[in-house]
Design goal:
With 169 residues, this protein is an alpha+beta fold. It is built from 3 helices and 14 strands.
Length: 169
């Protein structure tokens, strides 16, 4: 076994010394990643929140439709988070099948597609990776979408095109 002398004849094995040093480094890294955030003025711990999680939970998204401000209750997924980052949006939505309004976005969003089997009036979905859809009638479907959220008490919409703005507060 290889050993070395350190001050006044103390013998320490090199492999043991390496284990101690590596353990100290790993412990320091782990402690830094899990250490509380201390507010220097209050000398108290404050919570550390993931930015994406904070955006979805704290953001209130509204669609302005015919001078009425309606809240979109967001899903907690990457599609909804990506939409929030695009806001504000002013878009014209076209009618399709007398049950939905749609508009193509300039950017593709991440998808979380599933087949809902049934659409509820007020559902806000993404078709493909860039087609924003607001459903104003309930119906059964075989198509797949990524759910973004839902608008409660969505008023009846006619079968024409509409101009809307979507913004975050």
């Amino acid at each position: 076994m290889v050993s070395t002398k350190i001050d006044k004849g103390l013998k320490i094995s090199i492999p043991i010394l390496l284990i101690v040093v590596v353990s100290a480094i790993v412990t320091t890294i782990l402690m830094n990643n899990k250490s509380p955030n201390i507010d220097p003025e209050l000398n108290q711990e404050t919570s550390i929140t993931n930015n994406n999680e904070k955006e979805n939970k704290m953001a209130k998204i509204y669609v302005n439709l015919n001078n009425e401000k309606l809240e979109i209750n967001l899903e907690e997924n990457s599609t909804a988070s990506a939409l929030v980052k695009l806001l504000p949006l002013d878009i014209t939505m076209n009618d399709l099948n007398k049950n939905e309004k749609y508009a193509y976005l300039d950017e593709s969003l991440p998808t979380n597609t599933y087949s809902p089997k049934h659409i509820e009036a007020g559902d806000v979905m993404l078709f493909g990776d860039n087609c924003l859809v607001i459903f104003y009638e309930s119906f059964d479907t075989s198509y797949s979408y990524s759910k973004i959220g839902h608008i409660n008490n969505l008023p009846s919409l006619d079968d024409g095109n509409i101009s809307i703005s979507i913004d975050v507060e």
